[in-house]
Structures are given as structure tokens and as C-alpha cells.
Request: fold
Amino acid sequence: MTVGKRRRGLTVASALLGGVLVLSACSSGDNDASGSDSGNDSSQSKVDEAAAKKTSEATIKITPKDGSDNASINNSAAVTVSKGTLTDVSMTTEAGAEVSGEISADKTSWKPSGQLERSTTYKVTAEAKDSDGRVAHENASFTTVSPTNSFLGYFTPDDGSTVGVGMPVSINFDKAITNKAAVQKGVTVSSSSGQEVVCHWFNANRMDCRPDEYWQENSTVTLKLALDGVEGADGVYGVQQKTVTFKIGRNQVTYVDAQTKQMKVTQDGKTVKTIPISAGSPENKTYEGQMVISEKFKETRMNGATVGFTDDDGKGEYDIKDVPHAMRLTNSGTFVHGNYWGAKSVFGSVNTSHGCVGLSDTKGANDTGTPGYWFYTNSIIGDVVVVQNTGDKTVDPSNGLNGWNMSWADWKAGSAV
Reply:
């Protein structure tokens, strides 16, 4: 029993002594341990330094950022690099179609060559090197704005065209615009003539722009669309960013008098041609007012049923499939056109049409000696035709490109800015 107790006591003492030794060892070893850790830190620093030397300093940035949606289709995609130069950039659609682009001369940026498609996912991969030749990589994926969440403005006249002095800039939007002021601020129309140009909203989808008086002949008009990213309605953004220019030709204004049944063509205020006409009959009078030629057709079909003329209503049905030299004046169907089916004697003496202005012509639209041929050949889109003395109402300014029938004060009142 004594022996057992003694052994247990020794055991305890040893444990305590061991504990003291352990504690002493931890305490007395501080300086040595510190020296050992310092050596480890130094080694780690060397490792970190070596790793850093292997990492490229080139920093690549891809826009739009990875995961973006509703991205713009204009000038939004780009790759840039700092502290290095780009060596390779690839852009593809999700389906794998390549998008052409070009690295800048200084090799610090890249952008696509053209406009992107709406509602499309694009993948971009880029590679660059720093001054020591170390390579860096970056990639991103983004999706462009969808047709549902974007709007387009379809405008006339066309870029590079030459038009008459009455041609307004007319923009029809494919979505209803509720934030008209923001959209209008993104549209600029200016003329080399210095004429003030004001835009007028006819409704939520259409905005026309014109000066107080007809454009000055031989001037140049510039339309700038800066609508990219402009919120036209809740959650609906513009995508267009472009500049359009067109020329104004000679000043030609034609005056149609339904009483005298004559049409006087003027250029720069001087009469160059007088042509006998047949305007709308007493039952189907021609609109009065200033009308702008918006379309020209060497031959076209005119079907009375499309504008409400049928035998049932007593107005007389017609369907002529080859009307020659037709020039549209209103959206509702008013034209100046050639007429080969009427007797030659009616022109200049009787108003017989369903509301159009008819000129003597020949079937086939190839007879160069007819009044219809002459007027068609000597007219361009945007020329003004002023119709007088018909006894009918003045054409609605929104019916065609006919905003000239609105006073300047009323026109400016329709501006959103």
C-alpha cells in the first residue's frame, strides 16, 4: 500500500514537474521561436515576391460588365487595358457567330465594327500582356436590350436624299412614348440656313419637326438621334445613335385651283408650267390646304373599296390596277396622278375625280408628252402642292406630311420642351 502510494506520488510529481518543464520550455523559448518565425516570414516573402513577378500587371476591363442585361446595342461593348497591350479579343454570340471588331492602333482598346443585335447574348474573351510579356486574361457575358424593352424611331426623309422645301422630318416610334420631353431632347434637327426648327407631337408615336416657313432651297438639314439609353416609357429605352443629313432642292410649289381647273407650277416664285386638271367632283371634293408629296409611283393600283367607295354607298366603286404617275398627298388616299381613262376634254373643264387631282396621261406611263409624265418627272418627294377653292375642309395636319396647315404658334405648342 505504501509503495503504491509512493509511486502515485512520484507520478503526480513527475507530471507537475513535466508541466513546469513544459511551461518553462514555452517561456524560455520565446526568443528562439521568434527567430525561427522571422525566417519563415522571410521565406514566405520571397515566395510571394516570386509569385508576384509571375503575375501580369496588365488589367483588362470589359464593358458591359459580366452578367449585364438590357445592354445597349450602340457603342456599349468595349475592351480596354491598362499597364499593358491587348493581344487578342474575341466576341461571339451565344450561338457561336463571330462579331467583327478591331484593336486600336495603340493596342489599348477594342470595339465591335458595327451595331449589335437586340435581345442577343454575347461572350467576350480578351488577352493582354504587360511590359514584361506576362499574360492576363479576362472574359464576360452580357445580353442586349430586348425589342420589348426598347423603342425605335422610323424617320423620313432618308439619309443622303434630296427633297422639296416642304419636307418635314417625321419620326414614327414603334412604342408609345410617355416621356416625350426626354425623347425630344434626344432629337436635334438643324439647317445650314440657320432656320429655327421646332418639333411637334401629333400623338404618342409620332413627332414631326419643321421650321416656321418652308426650308430654304439648296440648304442642308441634319438630324441627330441621341436616343441610346433614353427611357421613352417605363422600362422602355431607346437604342438609336446616329446622324442623318439630307439636301433641300429647288423651291417648287404647285397651286391647284379647283375653280379654274388649272394647276400652276412655280419654282422660286416664278410660274414654269400651267397644266389643266380635274379635281374632286362636287360629291367627292378634294381637301384644301398645303400638302406635301410623300411618295411617288410610276404606276400603282387604286382601289376605291380601300377608302370607302363602293357601289352600295352611291359613290361609285373603282379598281384601276395601273394608275400612271401617282404622287401621294395624304395618308387617306389623296393623290396627284395621271388619268388615261377619262376623256381629254374633262381636263381644265370638269371636276370628275373621287377626290384626287387628275392630269391627262397615257396608259403604260411611258408617253413623255403627257402632262402627267411632265409633272411626275419634275416633282420630288417633299414638294408642296397647295389645293384651293374646292369647297371642302382643310386637310388635317397629321394626314400625311401636312403640318404646314397648322399655325406656327399651334405648332410650337405641341413641343414637349
